Amino acid sequence: MTPRIVIIGAGMAGLSCARTLLAAGTAPLILDKGRGIGGRMATRRIVLDGAAASFDHGAQYVTARAPDFARFLAGLPDAAAVWADGAAHPRHVGLPGMSGLPRAMAQGLEVRRGVEVTALRPVAGGWQVTAGAERITCARVVLTAPAPQLAALLGADHPLAAPLAGVSMAPCLTLMAAFPADAPRPFVSRTAAPHPLAWIAQDSTKPGRAAHVTSWVAQAGPAWSAAHLEQDGVAIAARLLPVLCEVIGTDPAAALHAATHRWRYAQVTAPLGQPFLRDAKRSLYLGGDWCLGPRVEAAWQSGRAIARDILEGGDAG
């Protein structure tokens, strides 16, 4: 059956849009180029000495400022819990990793993973989406990738390219390091913007995480990340591991595991200032956290706003 709506991207914005549409009786098709679901709500899993361990190497937590998003999180008690890291405002994390929250949201949705969209072409009655060797025709398309990637897909001449040009996103290089269970644990989380490692979290303190190792996630600040973005992962780890160990008070040689991840579009630094963009026919929508700000809640709000606009416009089934 030909889908009426194709959503490109299975991150928070795409899943929020899809769930809102599904609740209203419309079943969209979600396409994502990744192997997993959730975008930057990601969890890396490894095995150390025969036991599993994990790192939340993308979004570290979720906060709820609006009542509707708080109710949404409360409705997923098996997929999210409060992380007691001492923050003034409750920080929610996915179970058993951050990716657990988007996986719960994807239940009942048709999601095709490992499918990269390479072209988008208007046709009679809608759009033709080129996804690998497949050509999918649909009435509406919702794009939820980072704004710079959307600009490249649409082309400079597209009417929505101009507002996209005003959006800025910064990169982030993330270090994942594991140490023995009795390694130093001087704090649960730390923010230090001028420091090369702007965020450091003792990931193993989050609910549902493995306790047989002490795992840390350290994220470099935007300036450091941009300066070293094109280095390979081994070189980045060699630079960042000693910096982390100096902060937490341990020897880099004690590390049981050290790896890095490159997020080219990690944090919104100049948002669009509105929940989404759409074309005049309500057939093409663009959304994501880049619309409203660098928070998971912003992506959720953007996706839901797109779905509501589609439903209000009619002919969504």
Question: How would you sum up this structure, described in words?
Answer:
The protein is of the alpha+beta class and 317 residues long. The chain folds into two domains: 5-50 and 58-167 and 270-313, FAD/NAD(P)-binding domain; 169-268, Alpha-Beta Complex (Polyamine Oxidase, Chain A, domain 2), CATH 3.90.660. Helices cover 26% and strands 32% of the residues. The protein is built from nine helices and 18 strands. The strands form five sheets. It has a six-stranded mixed β-sheet with strand order 7-2-1-11-18-17. A five-stranded antiparallel β-sheet has the order 13-14-15-12-16. A three-stranded antiparallel β-sheet has the order 8-9-10, with no helix packed on it. A hairpin with a 5-residue loop joins β13 and β14. The protein is globular. The two termini are 12 Å apart. The model has no long low-confidence stretch (mean pLDDT 95).
Question: Secondary-structure blueprint of this entry?
Answer:
Layout: E1 5-8, H1 12-23, E2 29-32, E3 44-48, E4 51-55, H2 67-74, E5 80-83, E6 91-94, H3 100-105, E7 110-113, E8 117-123, E9 126-131, E10 134-138, E11 140-143, H4 147-154, H5 161-164, E12 168-180, E13 189-191, E14 197-202, E15 213-220, H6 222-227, H7 233-248, E16 257-270, E17 276-278, E18 284-287, H8 289-292, H9 296-313
Parallel strand pairs: 1-2, 1-11, 2-7, 11-18
Antiparallel strand pairs: 3-4, 5-6, 8-9, 9-10, 12-15, 12-16, 13-14, 14-15, 17-18
Helix pairs in contact: 1-9
